[in-house]
Amino acid sequence: MADRSAPVLPPSLCVPLGPVAALAALVVVVLGVLYAGHGEPGTVDRWVVRPTADSVRPPWRYVALSLDFLGEPVGAVMLVGAAVIGCLLLRRPRGAVLVVAGAAVAVGTATLLKHVVGRTIHGPGNLSYPSGHTAFATALACAVALLAAGRPGPGRAAGASLVLVSALVAGAAMGWAEVALSAHYPTDALGGWCAALAVTPATAWLVDRTADRLAGRTAGAGRREGD
Question: What percent of the chain stands above pLDDT 90?
Answer without folding.
Answer: 70
